[in-house]
């Protein structure tokens, strides 16, 4: 059974909220974050993900690395690789030597790493909360809430480095009590990428079982 990258469980396509319902201070920060990341040709970062549900006595930790360019991304963690070429997503499970292929759907509620810095633009209200200080660094804390109240995610907290507008973490809160924190580290802008960076190469996985779900 695969462990899901639950950062990829943020709603991305909900109704557009009215501008008057937004916090201008939060919007200014989010716009600066979006401008920072969309200006990059690519980036690479390490990440950690913590998934918790106290009621279910659940706590899982994942760590790995992600490379992003536009709407394409490739990430690896704990024996799992996920590659998205902009059209299809390939999820490879090392232990099973199996790859699942699904069609990328922008209307799907699962969010990709490439949407992390643009998700606020559609379907969310946002407000600036009290800043957070960690290790001598000040982070602006922004809370997003979806307009669609049927969404499983009822709140998203984003921490943004006040100095350089880099995303430190994204934390989602689900109605079932699950809390998922996705933290970026060792950020590297404009890393070299090619088409092969975002391509699943079956030749590198002899005997791989392909499950095409498209």
Task: Give a structural overview.
The chain is mostly beta strands. Helix content is 7%, strand content 45%. It has a single domain, classed as Lipoprotein localisation LolA/LolB/LppX (outer membrane lipoprotein receptor (LolB), chain A). Strands 1, 2, 3, 4, 5, 6, 7, 8, 9, 10, 11, 12 and 13 form a 13-stranded mixed sheet that branches. A hairpin with a 2-residue loop joins strand 8 (132-134) and strand 9 (137-146). Residues 1-20 and 107-111 have low confidence and may be disordered. InterPro entries: LolA/LolB/LppX, OM_lipoprot_carrier_LolA-like. Residues 1-20 form the signal peptide. This is Outer membrane lipoprotein carrier protein LolA.
Summarize the topology.
Layout: H1 24-38, E1 43-53, E2 58-69, E3 72-77, E4 80-84, E5 88-93, E6 98-103, E7 124-128, E8 132-134, E9 137-146, E10 153-161, E11 167-174, E12 179-189, E13 209-212
Parallel strand pairs: 6-13
Antiparallel strand pairs: 1-2, 1-12, 2-3, 3-4, 4-5, 5-6, 7-9, 8-9, 9-10, 10-11, 11-12
What are the defining features of this structure?
single chain, mainly beta, outer membrane lipoprotein receptor (LolB), chain A, 13-stranded mixed sheet, 13 strands, signal, Outer membrane lipoprotein carrier protein LolA
Concise description?
InterPro entries: LolA/LolB/LppX, OM_lipoprot_carrier_LolA-like. Pfam families: LolA. This protein is mainly beta and about 210 residues long.
């Amino acid at each position: 059974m695969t462990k899901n990258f639950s950062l990829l469980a943020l709603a991305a396509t909900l109704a557009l909220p009215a501008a008057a319902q937004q916090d201008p201070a939060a919007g200014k920060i989010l716009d600066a974050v979006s401008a920072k990341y969309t200006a990059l040709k690519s980036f690479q970062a390490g990440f950690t993900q913590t998934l918790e549900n106290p009621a279910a006595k659940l706590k899982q930790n994942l760590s790995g690395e992600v490379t992003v360019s536009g709407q394409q991304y490739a990430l690896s963690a704990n024996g799992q690789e996920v590659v998205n070429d902009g059209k299809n997503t390939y999820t490879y499970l090392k232990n099973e030597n199996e790859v699942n292929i699904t069609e990328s759907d922008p209307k799907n509620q699962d969010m990709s790493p490439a949407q992390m810095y643009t998700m606020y633009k559609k379907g969310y209200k946002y407000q600036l909360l009290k800043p957070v200080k960690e290790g001598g660094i000040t982070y602006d804390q922004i809370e997003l809430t979806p307009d669609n109240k049927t969404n499983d995610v009822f709140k998203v907290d984003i921490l943004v480095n006040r100095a350089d507008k880099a995303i430190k973490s994204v934390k989602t809160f689900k109605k079932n009590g699950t809390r998922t924190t996705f933290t970026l580290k060792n950020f590297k802008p404009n890393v070299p990428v090619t088409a092969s960076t975002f391509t699943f190469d079956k030749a590198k996985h002899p005997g791989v079982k392909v499950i095409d779900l498209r």
